[in-house]
Amino acid sequence: MSIGRLRELAEELEVAGYTVEVVYRGRVVLRAGRHARGSLLGRVMPVEVKDVKALLTLLL
Asked: How far lies 17's CA from each of 2, 20, 28, 32, in Å?
């Protein structure tokens, strides 16, 4: 998934009032949509990365 598509998806979720969380080993590693806040990406798009290391583990 490209960063542009992630932005589109997150913005659609935010407008619709939904939040999607990616959970790995019982911990939220990424949040997208309405309740995503407080990260570097959150300033650019409604995506919050909670645990970079775990997210990279999932992606690689």
From this structure: 23, 10, 19, 11
